Amino acid sequence: MRIAYGNYGMPDTPYAAMLRQVAAIGYDGLELCVAPGYPTAPDRLNAAQRMDLRQRAHDHGLEIDTLLAAKISVFEADAETHAGHLEQARYIFALAADLGLERPALTSTLGGRTDDWARSRALLADRVGDWATVAAEEGGIFACEAHVGGLAHAPDRVLWLLEAVNLPSLKVNFDYSHFELIGIPLAQAIDQLSAHAVGVHVKDTQGRYPEFRFLLPGEGDLDYAAYLRQLTSAGYEGSITVEISGQVFGAAGYDPLAAAAFSYRTLSDAVVAAEAMRR
């Protein structure tokens, strides 16, 4: 497995500095945040900058394998807005092609509210199906992620969605923190979703939904060595990606470099303790 960093946690750091810092800490991989306003958003990178980013990532030994489409609603009721979001997805996949990514995974949470499931799940399946269709047409994958409080907030709803859409280009980005907040055991979540996972986000939590906070990996009670052992036993071989929540990076005094280094130590120690193979 690879230990990767998501630059969602570095919203103001230019990509050259971000790549240098992440590599110096020791990370193996990188998830690029392509949200509007980020230094790595498609509209912030011209052709020369895309080639420069690609070369710098290669020179630093960082494998880019996921693109995070934060701040772009997937569950969108307005048809015109939804069509615009699908065009944004195509721009993101064009960026992935310029970066030399093979079958890139575009990941996003889905939106909506948990209590609206019965009346909204059919529209959600239609919208997610459209994202997965665009991904297939662009040679990639759409990896949906459950989110606490959202329409697809639990593993059973994610499984329903996968079956309803029924496209090979639809996969899962696994983030246990959202399930932890509603009391779902780790082993149960891994058993239900690991076979569909092409990516894993990690962060810690405090409290229970709806009164909770996200924390850096290692600031909470989750046993990451046990977590990695269970993922390995389930057959997962991809990246373990640090996702730093907006609750964390939006707080006063946030230090992105210190947060990235702390999170890396948590995971690198866990890999050693779990006797996991790192690549």
How would you sum up this structure in a few lines?
The protein has 279 residues and is an alpha/beta fold. It has helices spanning 15-25, 47-59, 79-98, 117-137, 155-165, 176-180, 186-193, 224-233, 246-249, 256-274, and strands spanning 2-6, 29-33, 63-68, 105-109, 141-145, 170-175, 197-202, 204-208, 211-215, 239-242. The chain has one domain (2-274): TIM Barrel.
The backbone outline, from C-alpha atoms, is: globular
Spatial order of the strands forming the largest sheet: 1-2-3-4-5-6-7-10
> Helical stretch count?
10
Reported by name, the CATH topology is: TIM Barrel
Mean pLDDT: 97
How do the helices and strands follow one another from N- to C-terminus? EHEHEHEHEHEHHEEEHEHH
- By CATH, the superfamily comes out as Divalent-metal-dependent TIM barrel enzymes
Strand content: 15-25%
Number of domains: 1
Helix content: 40-55%
Unreliable runs, pLDDT <50, ≥5 residues? none
SS class: alpha/beta
CATH architecture: Alpha-Beta Barrel
The number of distinct β-strands equals: 10
Q: Rg from C-alpha positions? A: 18 Å
The CATH first-level class comes to Alpha Beta
> What is the rounded distance between the termini?
6 Å
Taking the sheet with the most strands, its summary is: 8 strands, parallel, barrel
